[in-house]
Amino acid sequence: MATMAECRSALEKLSDNLARADGDVRSAAALDRSLSCHIKDLDITFTGRLTNGRIQVLNTADGPPGEKAEIRLAMTGDDLVAMVNGEMNFARAWGAGRVRLEAGFRDLLRLRSLL
Known about the structure:
- The structure is a single chain.
- By secondary structure, the protein is an alpha+beta fold.
- It contains five helices and five strands; from the N terminus they run ααββββααβα.
- The protein has helices spanning 4-20, 23-28, 77-84, 90-95, 105-111; strands at residues 33-39, 44-51, 54-62, 71-75, 100-103.
- The model has no long low-confidence stretch (mean pLDDT 90).
């Protein structure tokens, strides 16, 4: 099972990957939205913002998200690490129910290029 430190590191790596992206991926990540990522097996939530093509983690709290972020993710720590390391495809994991992504309709349309 991935640790909290490994999950934070994976989010930082994802942020770096988004910042280096170009084309449709860069455009999709250029949103300015609140973000939460609930790590189900650790029962912790990272909260922050997706802004200027980067994920900025501002807080970590026990349990599910206390407030409803504009973009909400939920998955296990191992799945987060595997996706960021390129070992698991996000779209397949989402389709299989291993990853939950919730956002407004317009944001989902923009984020689809990340899938």
